[in-house]
Each structure stands twice: as structure tokens, then as C-alpha cells.
Amino acid sequence: MNDRGSVPLTLAVLLFGSVVMLGLAVDLARVAAAWRQASHTASAAAEAGAGWIDESAARLDRLSLDAGRAREAALAVAVAPHRSAEVAATSTRVCVRVTVPVPVSILRVVGAGATRVTASACAVPVQG
Known about the structure:
The protein is an alpha+beta fold. Helices cover 48% and strands 19% of the residues. The chain has helices at 6-50, 55-59, 67-78, and strands spanning 84-89, 94-102, 115-123. It has a three-stranded antiparallel sheet with strand order 1-2-3.
């Protein structure tokens, strides 16, 4: 029985498995950070848009959004380099959907490609 070479082969397999697990941990942390960024951005953009009250409706004692300005304000907060956003604004609410691309680093070795993370948030004006 000749076992020569079995130890280096086993170590090579274990090393490859360790690199894949490390890559998975690093890339999952990047996805989590990107989701947190997208979520906070969507919330902040929706709240910024919900602050644009229609002045003519307010004079009639109605709480209504200026949908055009609300959309512009939300987009101004949400859109940035390497980040895209979709905004839907009505007279009652502003909804924002933010998408952030996430490149992979170590998992590229095993053929994994970049992914995208998306988060959404809505806000309504509240009379206080």
C-alpha cells in the first residue's frame, strides 16, 4: 500500500475549501452592508419626499403631497454613483426602491458573479 502524496492532496482540498468558505463569509458581509446602505437610503429618500406638502391643499386644511417636488426630493437623496433608484410619488405617499450592485471578490475564483441588492421604503406625510 502506497500512501505517498495523499497528505498534500488532502491539504490542497482543505485549503481550497477554506478559501471558498472565507470568500463566502467576505462576500456575504459585503451583501449585508450593501443591503443596509440600500435600506437606509430608501428610508431617507422616502422621508425627504414626504416633506414636500402641497401648499394650496394646506391652505384648505388638507394634508397632501406635491407629487412632483416629492419625487424630485426623493431622487436627489437616493441617486448616487453606483446606486440607482425608482420613485413613485402620489398625493398621499412616496415610495422609493434603491438598488446597489455588489461585486464579489474571493468567490470570483469559483465562478460567482456580481449581484444586486434592492431595498424599498414608503413614507406618508403626518400632521403633527
